[in-house]
Design goal:
alpha/beta, binds coproporphyrinogen III, 357 residues, 7-stranded parallel beta sheet, two-stranded antiparallel ribbon, 9 strands
Amino acid sequence: MSNLQNDLFIKACKGQETERTPVWIMRQAGRYLPQYRMIREKADFLTMCKTPELAAQVTLQPVDLIGVDAAIIFSDILVIPEAMGMHLEMHEGKGPMFHNPIRNKDDVSRLKRIDPWKDLKYVMDAVSLSKKELNGRVPLIGFSGSPWTLLTYMVEGKGSKNFSIVKKLIYNYPSLAHEILNKLAEAVADYLSAKIEAGVNAVQIFDTWGGILSPADFEEFSLQYVAKIISLIKKKTEPVIFFAKGVNYDHIKLTSAGADVLGLDWTVDIGKVRNIVHGKTDLQGNMDQTILYANTERIRNEVIKILESYGYGSGHVFNLGHGILPDIEPENAKALVDFVKVESPRFHRKESLSKGT
Ligand code: CP3
């Protein structure tokens, strides 16, 4: 890691001692930043993803403007289904949409096996360019959706409230669901391996919709595929973060996927989870993202609450419990990052131990 000037994030992901807690923000490259909106006015979302110069530019914005300890490559989880042959559209205010959702065996057989270096070359180019422009200032994170979360969008065709169509698929045609999930697990493993080869320093797997499944269904339709991906990823030292939003009944079970770090949403007490996982994994999170609507004094208190709950020592990456919302004031995001930098060192000093912090 000697080529990184700030490697706090990587060290924390590995449970190594740091002088303070590192911090980054899920969805940090996005619409809450006026500088993002300025670029977005001239190019649509997918054009931004597919133009490495624009993707690199917005990837670096939160590093320069907010002072985060890691950059995350600007892209989207849905570029994988698009590369597999689905037609993706991003609608202003409506979110992503597939006009040809997967509904039967024929649709599944049309899904192509991807070569990330060919079919998602624009992502690899954006990674190389972002690395070059970061010039070692902070690490770069790559990411993917989990197979289950990708499947929900591919089958529903868009965001959903009760996920009826994908639930009909898993209960009536489980083997078809598993066929797609297997294809997706292979694609995600190839994709994340390529991103690591292209230069990312860590990867995060987002299972945004894991929480809509019962514990047994989560194990069958999500967790086993995340475990498969992690076992297939060709990495040397790059940490893997697994964020399963809304899956909070069994954190030990989550560690069985083999990630280095578990991302936590805002509904759990990070200190309690730390006691449960007991060194099996490091933790990321987990401030309620809507606290950023409050004043800076309240934000400071919440930052301290989370640092105190986690307690003394290494292995914590500060983050929100889900992505930052588009109408958050950038100054409040900056205040969060500054408070973590100012308030966390005392949780890393040996002498703090005797003071009981
Ligand atoms: O974290 C980052 O800053 C990197 C960029 C990033 C985006 N999407 C950019 C984006 C990341 C990590 C994602 C992940 C993603 N995309 C997830 C998993 C994480 C999560 O939040 O649960 C999911 C479920 C998606 C799918 C997706 N993409 C949705 C539902 C939407 C529409 C809702 C929304 O936030 O607008 C998108 C579009 C999207 N992805 C935008 C951005 C900046 C907004 C597009 C715009 O500028 O118009």
